[in-house]
Amino acid sequence: xxxxxxxxxxxxxxxxxxxxxxxxxxxxxxxxKAATWALIHQRQTCEVTxxxxxxxxxxxxxxSCQLEPDGCLCSVIKDAGDDPDVTHGAEIRAExxxxxEPGIHLxxxxxxxxxxxPGLGLEVGGAAINLVPRQxxxxxxxxxxxxxxxxxxxxxxxxxxxxxxxxKKTLNPRLGIVGGISILxxxxxxxxYSTASWRASVEQAVDVAAANGQSHLVLATGSRSEKxxxxxxxxxxxxxxxxxxxxxKALRRCVQxxxxxxxxxxxxxxxxxxxxxxxxxxxxxxxxxPAFLAxxxxxxxxxxxxxxxxxxxxxxxxxxxxxxxxxxxxFFQVLCKQVAERSWEYVNGKLEVEAILFxxxxxxxxxxxxxx
Length: 372
Hints:
The chain is of the alpha/beta class and 372 residues long. 35% of the residues lie in helices and 22% in strands. The chain has 2 domains: 181 residues, CbiD-like (2-Layer Sandwich), CATH 3.30.2110; 175 residues, 3-Layer(aba) Sandwich (Beta-carbonic Anhydrase, Chain A). It has 12 helices and 16 strands. The longest helix has 18 residues. The protein is elongated and about 85 Å long.
């Protein structure tokens, strides 16, 4: 997971004129195409134009071009624009050499992860170069190499110095990708504060868990909730998915992959939204509704005074404090039942759903299930 979410709306970002950037896949493609051209023509180059999956061309400046008679190493410094991408500033390299076997042979080098688990749509034991970037690289190299002598081929090695360290800041270790980053990107463009990469990583985590025999997953709204859930749900680490704001996407992916049961783990703020059927819980898209929580409390026997206080509450945490001070603990169980019910309805009853609500210290405040 390389891109993170922002509390700003896309329209506000657009108004601010924030810069787009290029994916690791686009950078690797540019480096590979440039190295191929330089090798074939035995001339160095300083920039290269590639075609992006979004249907537009992009010209990228090279960071380096080291030419030898039988090989060329080119690199591009990844510019993620104004997106807080962990790979921003990384050097994406491509070394192209002549091969005795015909065809284009793509492999990963230093800093590119190795796939160790099924479920990613990539060969186990192979390089973590995703399908679209793989197609981009092979297509760009093939375009330049169309006129090479018959019987000759090319070896293309993608590498990222320092990629192993960068990978520690991503979901790669959880997905079974070891030793480096993934070469990613479905459009070639990184949009500022885009959630596309984040959402894709959540879906990949579900895919990997399913492909490795897990039928019960824990979908946590954050890292703390996930950590708390690990103490209460006896499942292997691979069965825990930090879904963030993408509850709906994660639930539907579970159904698609044949998962039998999903346990939602979270705190009162996210659960307050899920209980109302809001399945993308980004703060900019869905606010906590104190009036809804007040009526929920009324149904649990809250006094009129408490109901009024909840309606005026500043945050969901404030609501929790008011409920706990009043000793109305049944509220949390009802909230969990609502979350489980709405989630079960969201997937048309095709998945058993459990909701586990945690306090900020890891105490379980409520726990409820919904199944057929």
